[in-house]
Every structure is written in C-alpha cells, then in structure tokens.
Design goal:
Low-confidence stretches: none
Strand order of the largest sheet: 1-2-3-5-4
Distance between the termini: 41 Å
CATH class of the largest domain: Alpha Beta
Largest sheet: 5 strands, antiparallel
Shape: globular
Mean pLDDT: 91
Oligomer: single chain
Number of helices: 8
CATH superfamily of the largest domain: Aminoglycoside phosphotransferase (APH), C-terminal lobe
C-alpha cells in the first residue's frame, strides 16, 4: 500500500492510501502535535459521518474508525476518496464560462446544509452529540470565555476587536424567541466543500471537526458571512445566487423561519471575529 499526504485539512491531516489494485481511500488523523481533544474530535467526526449517511448530505463514506491511540499515536478514521475541487479562487472548466453552472453551484451549497438541517438527531443516534438545553443562552458566554482564554498566550497584548463587548451585549439583549434543534456543521464555507468537475453540484462536505447540536440557521449565517464581500457569490462573477436567493432557498427546503436573520448573522460575525483573534494571538 502506498501513502501520501494530501493538501488541505488545516487543523488535521489527510493521507491518501492506494492499494495494489489502484483503489484509494483517505485516512484522517490529528496533526503531528495533537491538541488536548484531538482524539475526541476524530471519533466525533466519524460518528457523525456514519450517522447521517444516506440522508441527502453529500459526504465521504466513513469505512472504519480506530479508537485506539496506540496504533499510530492518535485516533483516526478511514473514508472514501472524493473527487472534485474546493470552489475558492478562480473556478475551473465550465464554471468559469457558464453563469448557470455558477448559479446551480451556489444553490447546491445551500441545499447541502438544508438536508443536514432536516435530519432529526434522535432518529440517527445523535441525540447526545451536544447539549441542546440552553444552547441560545450559552452562545455569547461561550465565545467570551474563549476570547478571555487568549490572555494565557505568550506575548498576547489583549484583544484588538473594537466593539466586541457591544456586539456581545446586543446578542444577549436580542436573543431570538424560537430555537430549532438540529445537527450543525459548525464551519460551513466554500473551502470546506468539494464541487464536481462534471456537473454543477457538490461531491462532499468536509471538515466536520466543529459539528454539534444547535440551531441549523447558524450554518446558513456562517455561509453568508464567510462568502460575503470581495470574492463572494455576488461579486466573484455573474450567475451566483444573491443572498436573498440563498436565504429563500434554505427557508423553502427546511421550513425554518427566515423573517429575520440579523441575530444569526451577528452571532456568526461575533464567533468568526473571536476565532480569528485566536489565530492571530
């Protein structure tokens, strides 16, 4: 069997395994220097991929999982190899020339998380994946605590996030009255999916390390936030769906309320800002 490391997987490592007959699979494992919960993350990803298979979410198939760190030094799992490309930067082939393909790709991005939102956690054995009780109430405190934890980093002079406290206070004061429990990906954006070269559709949603239970509307808000501005659906080239189209499509596919996404988009920005602050700390 031949093995080579693949590009991608910024937090964890991917290795392509090729057998003598030419068939390939992909091994996913934590980095060389694992974080405290790296093994738990691997097992969590494998569990979710196994549970949601066959429910309309494009994904790799999880073939096997190893929960014994003694085998290669960490827990890991083996999944199917997925063809395609990450739709960031200059798009290849017909995507570059056909506005209809770009439009359908944008809709496919929403369709994938809409399919995930329709899965009932209890029905696929994921009812204990997270703590749904008080999920809305915990969000601001959870991310404030993370921001405060950066103070332990050597050379960190404190947060450079003007208005972060004001945004957190606004989120607390304007918390939505409705909450829908579902499975969320947690980091859904253009670099964490693979698109087909042959058809304007997704071949897989990848990097499930932040998956948990929560309100699925946060995945939509995260997509809108991370694909906004320069290089977004609306500014990269003609043909991509507008924000209004993406929101309407998601609402139609999930039945969730879309009348006011302001709070969800603000939470996505708040979370993203704090995560990026940690990257730069």
């Amino acid at each position: 069997m031949a093995c080579r490391q693949l590009a991608g997987g910024t937090q964890n490592n991917l290795f392509e395994l090729t057998r003598e007959d030419g068939s390939t699979t992909v091994l996913r494992r934590p980095p060389r220097h694992p974080r405290p919960k790296s093994d738990e993350t691997m097992l969590r990803e494998a569990r979710v991929l196994t549970a949601i298979e066959g429910h309309g979410v494009p994904q790799p198939t999880c073939h096997a999982v190893c929960d014994d760190p003694g085998v290669i030094g960490t827990c890991f799992y083996v999944m199917s190899a997925v063809g395609g490309f990450a739709p960031v930067g200059d798009l290849p082939g017909r995507y570059a020339t056909d506005p209809d393909w770009r439009h359908r790709l944008g809709l496919a991005m929403v369709d994938a998380i809409a399919s995930l939102a329709r899965i009932r956690p209890d029905e696929v054995g994921l009812g204990d994946l997270g703590r749904p009780e008080g999920w809305l109430e915990r969000q601001v405190g959870r991310w404030r605590k993370q921001l405060e934890s950066y103070a332990a980093f050597d050379g960190y002079d404190g947060p450079d996030l003007p208005g972060v406290e004001r945004v957190g206070d606004w989120l607390e004061a304007n918390r939505p009255g409705d909450f829908t429990l579902g499975i969320i990906h947690g980091d859904y954006h253009l670099a964490n999916v693979m698109a087909s070269h042959d058809r304007p559709e997704l071949t897989a949603v990848l990097d499930w390390e932040l998956t948990t239970l929560g309100d699925p509307r946060l995945d939509l808000a995260w997509l809108l936030t991370t694909s906004g501005g320069v290089g977004s659906f609306e500014t990269m080239a003609d043909g991509f769906p507008t924000t209004d189209e993406l929101v309407a499509r998601y609402g139609d596919r999930t039945g969730l309320r879309m009348d006011d996404l302001t709070w969800w988009r603000a939470l996505a920005c708040y979370k993203l800002g704090i995560i990026l602050e940690g990257t730069n700390a």
